[in-house]
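Reminder to self: C-alpha cells first, then the designed residues, so the page reads top to bottom the way the pipeline ran.
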C-alpha cells in the first residue's frame, strides 16, 4: 500500500477513512502527528492571481474551534437553521452543536447497526430541503454484519432528537471489500438527493471484467441521483431526466460514473456547480469540476485513468479530465474535498474552493472554472490539520474543517 511517507512512518492504530491505497486493507491512521510534520507540496504559496496582494489577503483567515468529537467524518445543517450544525461520528452517532455548544445527548445513535473502522462507519448526512416541516434526513453507513453501503431515511422526533424506529432503507449496495465506500450525501440545487458510491474497493477496481467504475450495470464507482419519495416497487423515485434511464443494462439511478472513491463532493451554493474530490490509488489525487447540470452522464475516467495518468489501456468514452491533480511523489495520499466558500465573513476565501489531504493536513484553496484551476495555494495563517477527514458547510454558508483526531474548526476572518 502507499499513502504518503508521513503517514506510513506513523502507522499505529485505526485506518484513514478514505485513503488512496492500492491495497484491499485500509492504511493505518497517524495519531499524534505534529501539525508541521508533513512536507509542504511543491509550489506551496505560489499565487497566480495577483502576486503579493492576493497572498496577503489569504493570510486573513483563522480557524475557530467549535467542539471536539469522537472521530468526526462529516458535518451538515438543516436548510435555514442558523443556530445548529450536526457532526457525524464515524462509529455511528450524530452530535448537535447549538449556538456554539456541543449538546450532551446525541441526535442519533445507531452504533449497533454500523460497522466502523478504517473506511467504514457512519459516513454521510443530508437534511431534506423541507426538513423544517417533514423532519426527514438521510444517512449513509456501512451496515454491521454485511458491510453493505446503506442509504437510509429517518425522521426527527423533536428539535434535537431523531426517531431511530422511523428508519427506511433506500439503498443497500453489496460491497465485498472494506474500503472505497464513498459516503457523501447532498441535496443538489434541483432538490434531488445525490449519493457518492466508491468502486467497491481492492486494487485496480478489480471486480468485474473491466472494473465497476466504467460498468453502468452497477451502482459502484458512481454518483447517484434520486428522488427519495417512494415510487411503485422502489423505495425512491428515478428522476426521468437521469442520463441512463431506458438504456438496456444500465442502472437508472446513475448520474455520473468513472469514479474510484468520491469521498467528498459538493455543490456551489451560488452557482450549482459540482466539485468532486476523487481519491487516487498509487499516483494521483484529483479534483473534477463541472457547471450546474453538466455532470449529467459524465465519465470521469477511472479505472482507465487515475487523474491525468493512464492506468489501464482500456476505453473511457467521453472521459472528462480533472481540473486539478496532486501527486503522491509530492506527499499526497488521500485528497479531502471541501466547498466553494461563499461566506461573506471570510473575504479572503470567497469564491475559492477549499480542500486538503489526509496525510499532509495542509489546507489549500483554488479558483475552479470549467476545464481549469487557477491560483492554487496554501491558506496562509492557519495550522495544518492532522488526519484531515472532511469539510462541512452550515446553513449560512460557513465552512468547517474536521480532523479524525477529534477537533472541528470553522473558517473565520482574522
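Designed residues (414 positions):
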Amino acid at each position: 500500500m502507499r499513502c504518503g511517507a508521513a503517514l506510513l512512518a506513523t502507522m499505529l492504530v485505526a485506518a484513514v477513512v478514505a485513503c488512496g491505497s492500492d491495497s484491499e486493507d485500509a492504511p493505518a491512521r497517524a495519531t499524534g502527528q505534529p501539525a508541521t510534520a508533513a512536507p509542504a507540496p511543491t509550489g506551496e504559496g505560489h499565487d497566480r492571481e495577483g502576486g503579493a496582494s492576493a497572498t496577503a489577503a489569504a493570510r486573513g483567515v483563522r480557524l475557530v474551534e467549535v467542539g471536539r468529537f469522537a472521530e468526526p467524518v462529516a458535518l451538515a445543517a438543516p436548510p435555514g437553521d442558523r443556530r445548529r450544525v450536526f457532526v457525524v461520528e464515524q462509529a455511528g452517532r450524530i452530535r448537535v452543536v447549538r449556538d456554539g455548544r456541543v449538546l450532551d445527548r446525541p441526535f442519533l445513535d445507531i452504533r449497533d447497526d454500523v460497522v466502523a473502522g478504517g473506511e467504514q462507519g457512519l459516513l454521510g448526512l443530508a437534511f431534506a430541503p423541507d426538513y423544517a416541516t417533514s423532519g426527514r434526513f438521510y444517512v449513509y453507513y456501512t451496515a454491521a454484519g454485511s458491510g453493505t453501503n446503506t442509504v437510509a431515511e429517518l425522521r426527527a422526533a423533536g428539535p434535537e432528537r431523531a426517531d431511530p424506529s422511523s428508519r427506511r432503507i433506500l439503498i443497500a449496495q453489496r460491497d465485498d471489500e472494506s474500503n472505497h465506500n464513498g459516503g457523501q450525501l447532498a441535496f443538489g440545487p434541483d432538490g434531488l438527493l445525490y449519493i457518492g458510491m466508491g468502486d467497491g474497493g481492492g486494487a485496480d477496481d478489480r471486480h468485474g471484467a473491466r472494473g465497476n467504475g466504467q460498468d453502468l450495470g452497477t451502482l459502484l464507482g458512481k454518483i447517484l441521483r434520486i428522488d427519495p419519495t417512494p415510487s411503485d416497487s422502489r423505495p425512491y423515485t428515478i428522476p426521468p431526466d437521469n442520463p441512463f434511464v431506458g438504456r438496456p443494462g444500465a442502472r437508472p439511478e446513475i448520474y455520473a460514473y468513472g469514479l474510484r472513491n468520491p469521498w467528498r463532493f459538493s455543490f456551489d451554493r451560488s452557482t450549482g456547480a459540482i466539485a468532486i474530490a476523487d481519491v487516487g490509488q498509487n499516483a494521483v489525487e484529483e479534483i473534477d469540476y463541472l457547471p450546474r447540470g453538466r455532470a449529467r452522464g459524465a465519465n470521469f475516467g477511472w479505472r482507465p485513468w487515475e487523474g491525468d495518468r493512464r492506468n489501464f489501456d482500456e476505453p473511457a468514452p467521453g472521459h472528462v479530465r480533472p481540473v486539478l491533480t496532486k501527486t503522491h511523489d509530492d506527499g499526497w495520499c488521500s485528497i479531502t474535498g471541501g466547498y466553494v466558500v461563499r461566506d461573506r465573513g471570510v473575504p479572503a476565501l470567497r469564491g475559492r474552493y477549499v480542500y486538503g489531504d489526509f496525510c499532509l493536513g495542509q489546507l489549500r484553496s483554488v479558483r475552479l472554472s470549467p476545464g481549469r484551476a487557477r491560483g492554487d495555494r496554501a491558506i496562509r495563517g492557519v495550522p495544518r490539520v492532522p488526519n484531515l477527514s472532511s469539510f462541512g458547510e452550515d446553513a449560512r454558508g460557513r465552512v468547517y474543517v474536521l480532523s479524525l483526531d477529534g477537533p472541528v474548526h470553522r473558517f473565520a476572518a482574522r
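Confidence is low (pLDDT under 50) at residues 1-18, 21-53.
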